[in-house]
Every structure is written in C-alpha cells, then in structure tokens.
Design a protein that fits this description.
With 336 residues, the protein is of the alpha/beta class. It contains 12 helices and 12 strands. It has helices at 4-11, 15-22, 30-42, 49-56, 72-87, 107-111, 128-136, 160-173, 188-203, 218-234, 245-257, 294-311, and strands spanning 61-66, 91-96, 117-121, 141-144, 154-158, 179-183, 210-213, 239-242, 267-271, 288-291, 318-320, 323-325.
C-alpha cells in the first residue's frame, strides 16, 4: 500500500508538501498540487482517517441528540440521517434526551471534542441556554422539529399549522361537520397543529369544536375512545384528527371495542405517517395520515451541517410542506 514517502518520491516533492496537499493546507503552488493529486490517484493512496483527523482537529463524526430513540418516528429519522452522513464519509454518535425525564448525564459535555457538529432532533433535546452557548462558540449545529428563538441557528421544521388545517379541511370536504381534535402535550409543534384545527373549524363555519389533550401513549387514546363513545353516538360526532399516528391507532382501537365502525361510522386522520409498534386489540385499518418528508428534511439537515463544518457557511432555516396520504380510516359522512 502506498504511503507519503511513495507519493513524494514519484511526484518529486517533500513529504511535508504531500501532507499539506492531503490536508487541504495552503503554501503549495498550483502545478505541484495538481501533480501530487494525480500521483495520489495513480497510486490509489488512502489517507489514514485517524491521523488526518488529528492534523485537522476533526473527528469526521456528527453528534445526533434525539428526542426518543425508541419512538418509530424518530428511529426512521435516525436511519435517514445515518445513511446520508455515511454517504458523505461521516460517522455518527447518538444520544437519547427527552424533555420529560430528568437525567444526570450531560450529553453535550460527553460529546465535546468527539464530534464536529450537532443535529438536535425533536423538542426538548437542547435548552435555549445551551443553544446560545454553542452559537457563541461557533459550533456547527442544526435543529430539527424545534424552535427556540435563538439567532444564527439553522432551524428545519414542517409547517404544522398548514398540514393540520388541510387534514381537517379534507374531513370537511367529505361532509363531516362535527370533528374532534386529539392533541398530544402542548409542545410547540402540537400548539401549531391545534391552531390549524381551530382555524379550519372557524373558516368553514362549523358549530362544533373540542380538543382533548393526552400524553404520547396509545393506551391513553384507547381509554379516551371508550370514555367518549356515548357522546360520539349521542352528539353524532363523525370524525377526529389526531396529533400523531400512535394516538390515532389507540383511538381507532378503542372505537372498534366500543362498537363504532371505522371508517363506516367514524373517520380518523393521524399525523407523521408511521405504523404504531404497540399491540392492538383489533385489526386497525390503514390510517389516513399527514406524511412528513423525513428523507428530504434529513438530506437538507446533513447537507447544511456539512457546509458549516467544512466551509463555515451560516444559517439556512427552512420549513417543509407535508402531504396527506389517503388510506382506509376515512370515508364520507353517511349521516348527512
């Protein structure tokens, strides 16, 4: 296998000159640089990644702080981010950090000097104070699915308000006039989705609006369905929009156990377009759901982080649009 000495000998230069070219350092004339690069290619030289990282003070690794690794929604993001980073020659270290669990582990301190940049994925993965400190230190970073109002940060989000508005509007176009909203905890993303629900109800002159606030667990939605099934029948409520597919799955499961047919008697729309991993009591129909462009977001996030790490190029925040995927949990209102 070729080494620096071999390249220097063939190119007729010193080893230090070869080293400067390999590590993209100045001080080499263009004709010599081109000759060395041609020699490197000819001899099929592969630089030692560890040695090169020490010279450049880079690890060629990114740190990904994620809301919840066990959640199917976030694990799909991780697969996309890992694949894209790997294709660009970068490894990744992952840490799980939730906003509703206390932890004695300082993940940012743990990853300090072990990574060249950070991707924060989900609400609660970084505090405003931590973000301000990282920006002040000029640490390359990207924040996905969160907004902390810190300047000079690349935020990548979806338009939660518009996506939820369009989901409710779809149910209205199917003839539904009494639509309930099943919301997760009041993180910013759910607040925006709830605004979309309220705005759609108002703009289409519906005289019925009610939101139920739950945690993130399918069982909570299942129990809610059992609890409100009598009201659904008595008040002729015919549809629900849910903040994520986990809640939609649990709610449909509870409706079926309450004797309410989906979608024949009741339509349900979910969000995030993931399949819940939990075991249900019934066969759940394929859920009509708002699909987030996870692959596009992941490509954009890794691409912008690479620009920051390698070129020092700054902020490029962006909101992505979602699409409603029509499946078997929705149908026209037969009670019209």
């Amino acid at each position: 296998m070729a080494n620096l000495y071999d390249i220097a000998k063939v190119a007729g230069v010193s080893k230090s000159t070869v080293s400067r070219v390999i590590n993209d350092q100045p001080g080499v004339k263009e004709d010599k640089r081109l000759k060395i690069q041609e020699t490197i290619k000819k001899l099929n030289y592969k630089p030692n990644a560890l040695a090169r990282s020490l010279v450049l003070q880079k690890t060629h690794t990114i740190g990904i702080i994620v809301r919840e690794l066990s959640n199917n929604f976030y694990s799909e993001y991780i697969r996309n981010l890992h694949h894209i980073a790997d294709s660009m020659g970068y490894g990744a270290l992952y840490c799980n950090r939730t906003s509703y669990e206390e932890s004695n582990i300082d993940y940012l301190e743990f990853l300090n000097k072990k990574v060249d940049g950070f991707i924060f994925l989900g609400e609660g993965t970084v505090t405003k104070e931590e973000l301000e400190s990282l920006v002040l230190s000029k640490y390359p970073l990207v924040v996905i699915q969160s907004m902390l109002d810190v300047q000079d940060v690349t935020y990548i989000n979806i338009n939660n308000y518009r996506a939820y508005y369009e989901a409710v509007e779809y149910l209205i176009k199917l003839g539904h006039r009494k639509i309930i909203n099943i919301s997760g905890p009041l993180d910013k993303e759910f607040v925006e989705r709830n605004k979309g629900y309220s705005e759609a109800v108002t703009m289409h002159n519906l005289d019925y609006e009610i939101t139920y606030y739950l945690d993130y667990f399918m069982e909570s939605a299942y129990e809610l369905a059992l609890k409100i099934a009598p009201s659904i029948r008595n008040e002729k409520i015919t549809a629900a929009v849910c903040s994520n597919n986990i809640l939609a799955t649990g709610f449909i499961d509870g409706l079926i156990d309450s004797g309410i047919k989906v979608p024949e008697e009741f339509s349900v729309i979910g969000f995030d377009d993931i399949v819940a991993a939990e075991v249900t009591h019934n066969n759940i129909p394929a859920i009509t759901s708002v699909k987030q462009p996870q692959k596009d977001i992941s490509e954009y996030a890794v691409g912008k982080l690479m620009q920051m790490m390698e070129q020092g190029i700054g902020e490029y925040s962006k909101d992505f649009s979602c699409k409603l995927k029509i499946r078997n949990s929705t149908s026209g209102n037969k009670f019209i």
